[in-house]
């Protein structure tokens, strides 16, 4: 299983960047997890848009879905140019009916997932956990049967992340705040909270993502290292993880 960070910013992308978006690849299958602002442009440094096999969304905040509209245009243009009628499946939860319906377009199809069931997409099996966020949002545990990647999506701290992330090869946490700040009102976590989950869940690698627009990101890494002795990285565009 290979993960590539396409975008890591919280809220909005800084110059040349993108907000939350991650590409997962296995056995020639490409799954885009979240599709934030700038993601479509950044994705094309790694993969042609038409080579995506599916998209999976955690929730309907703009920093996770802003580029769905232009992704739909890209599939329309590419299909017309090549005389094809390929449809891209976009998986989302159905607790925001308007958001969910917007995933269907001429060449994209909205598919609802049931967060209480394991979802199979290509070679991936995905289980979900409701997060603590102002709107319904789901964390994901994605496995290919051998290794596991856990993505908290957007959330403030909750104990249930610890069993959910147990022994994961890679844990990607929402790290929108610094160690001594309190991100809970905004529905986000700190470096310290992400590291605490990593430690208690016994994950191999921690990736701090959904990064803030204030402070110095290096400090997030220093703070996390106080609590977790495993490997820790700061998300950046082009970061890859293979397991
Ligand atoms: Zn959000
Ligand atoms: Zn977000």
TrEMBL record:
Residue spans crossing the bilayer: none
InterPro entries per UniProt: Metallo-B-lactamas, RibonucZ/Hydroxyglut_hydro
Domain Metallo-beta-lactamase: 18-210
GO molecular function: 3'-tRNA processing endoribonuclease activity
The UniProt record lists the keyword Zinc: yes
Keywords, in A-Z order: Hydrolase, Zinc
PANTHER family: METALLO-HYDROLASE YHFI-RELATED (PTHR46018:SF4), ZINC PHOSPHODIESTERASE ELAC PROTEIN 1 (PTHR46018)
Name used for this protein in its record: MBL fold metallo-hydrolase
